[in-house]
Automatic annotation (TrEMBL):
<keyword id="KW-1015">Disulfide bond</keyword>
<feature type="domain" description="PITH">
    <location>
        <begin position="179"/>
        <end position="374"/>
    </location>
</feature>
<dbReference type="InterPro" id="IPR017937">
    <property type="entry name" value="Thioredoxin_CS"/>
</dbReference>
<dbReference type="GO" id="GO:0005737">
    <property type="term" value="C:cytoplasm"/>
</dbReference>
<feature type="domain" description="Thioredoxin">
    <location>
        <begin position="3"/>
        <end position="159"/>
    </location>
</feature>
<comment type="similarity">
    <text>Belongs to the thioredoxin family.</text>
</comment>
<dbReference type="InterPro" id="IPR010400">
    <property type="entry name" value="PITH_dom"/>
</dbReference>
<protein>
    <recommendedName>
        <fullName>Thioredoxin</fullName>
    </recommendedName>
</protein>
<dbReference type="InterPro" id="IPR037047">
    <property type="entry name" value="PITH_dom_sf"/>
</dbReference>
<dbReference type="Pfam" id="PF00085">
    <property type="entry name" value="Thioredoxin"/>
</dbReference>
<dbReference type="InterPro" id="IPR013766">
    <property type="entry name" value="Thioredoxin_domain"/>
</dbReference>
<dbReference type="Pfam" id="PF06201">
    <property type="entry name" value="PITH"/>
</dbReference>
<dbReference type="InterPro" id="IPR008979">
    <property type="entry name" value="Galactose-bd-like_sf"/>
</dbReference>
<dbReference type="InterPro" id="IPR036249">
    <property type="entry name" value="Thioredoxin-like_sf"/>
</dbReference>
Length: 376
């Protein structure tokens, strides 16, 4: 006797293969997650979008393609930020989805809420918004679904990053992405604003690096590379322990703090071994480097003293906080390293980083000096 078992059970489709897009793009679920990415990745591209936004969906394949081609761990990171779910981030970066017409009595940063409820007639304006960050700082903003413009901006930054990564220390890449200490938010690394052609360093030992090495990438002392034949990527003092460094900037800066890196390991038994800096005097907005006698007669804007325990054992770096109100519109800095932590007559500095905010670009004019190389 035959029994009726009903129609055959439909077979469930196989689960979809994960898209490369989901692997290349990080979906932001909290402001804290985004802050962590800004700290860990040199370049971050943020796609502010909404699920109901047609232009956002239209440009998604182009963004997908860019992410697959260009993403590099800890260097170039693509993210997506849903403005409905992450309103705090949208507000922080002034991302507007829709703006009301001038006659509207209901101006709001989230005009799309009114649009969706049909209470007010609004017109599309800002979504999607793409913001490109470099070293934690906003570099470019692209409003609307413009894949050609977005591609141009990202490709340019990616090319610059590749050139910087491919060169050895000593090739003159100002503002390397390496940092020896954490950066206090909302400030950023603004070392890329150093005008390397205008650098001057007095009492520099010619057997060591030129002034520009102070602003390059990761020190060779941390990479393990042998610099004996390739040129030493740090500076040391010559006739005594003092150094006088003049640093002009491309922009008007607000300087919050300094990071000084030194891998000197003077244990007191070797009088010739270089020391780490101890006392640093800072002078702002000078048109040229100060002479040593001149600096002694001019009151410093700030004088700091570094204690041995202040240095980070792993990175050889000390964070030097500044009196922020006194460093609000800085076009140049003179750093006078007057002594070191020990009795040696040699002082060593590997890297310097400036932390703060960058303002408008300056008209630099001519920076002509005697000698073929900066600092000579």
């Amino acid at each position: 006797m035959m029994t009726y078992e009903g129609p055959p059970k439909p077979q469930l489709p196989a689960p979809p293969t994960p898209s490369p897009y989901t692997m290349a793009v990080v979906t932001i679920s909290s402001p804290e997650q985004f802050t962590t990415l800004l700290n860990s990745s040199r370049i971050v591209i943020a796609d502010f979008h909404a699920e109901w936004c047609g232009p956002c969906k239209a440009i998604a394949p182009a963004y997908d393609s860019l992410a697959r081609q260009i993403s590099r761990p800890n260097q170039i990171t693509f993210t997506k930020i849903n403005v409905d779910e992450q309103q705090q981030l949208a507000q922080a970066y002034s991302v507007r989805a829709y703006v009301p017409p001038p006659s509207s009595p209901h101006p709001t940063i989230y005009g799309y809420v009114l649009y969706k409820s049909n209470k007010v007639g609004l017109t599309p304006d800002r979504l999607p918004t793409f913001i490109v960050f470099e070293n934690g700082r906003v570099k470019e903003t692209v409003n609307g679904a413009d894949p050609q413009k977005l591609n141009g901006v990202i490709q340019k930054l990616a090319t610059e990053a590749s050139k910087s990564d491919g060169g050895d220390a000593g090739e003159g890449s100002s503002g390397g992405s390496w940092l020896g200490a954490a950066v206090t938010k909302p400030y950023a690394d603004v070392t890329d604003q150093v005008e390397t052609k205008g650098l001057e360093l007095l009492n520099r030992d010619d057997e060591f690096g030129l002034p520009r090495v102070l602003f390059e990438g990761k020190p060779s002392a941390l990479t393990g590379k042998d610099k004996s034949n390739a040129g030493k990527d740090w500076v040391e003092s010559d006739t005594d322990e003092q150094l006088m460094l003049y640093v002009p900037f491309q922009s008007n800066l607000k300087v919050h703090s300094l990071q000084i890196t030194s891998f000197a390991t003077n244990d007191g038994d070797d009088d010739e071994a270089p020391m780490r800096p101890k006392t640093i005097s800072l002078y702002t907005n000078r048109s040229h480097v100060l002479g040593f006698d001149e600096a002694e007669d001019i009151p410093a804007v700030q004088k700091v003293e570094i204690k041995p325990e202040d240095w980070d054992a792993k990175t050889g770096t000390v964070n030097v906080p500044l009196r922020f109100v006194k460093f609000q519109s800085v076009t140049s800095l003179v750093l006078f390293f007057s002594d070191g932590d020990g009795d040696s007559e040699k002082l060593r500095v590997d890297r310097i980083r400036f932390i703060g905010d960058a303002g408008d670009k300056r008209a630099m004019g001519k920076l002509e000096k005697i000698g073929d190389e900066p600092g000579e």
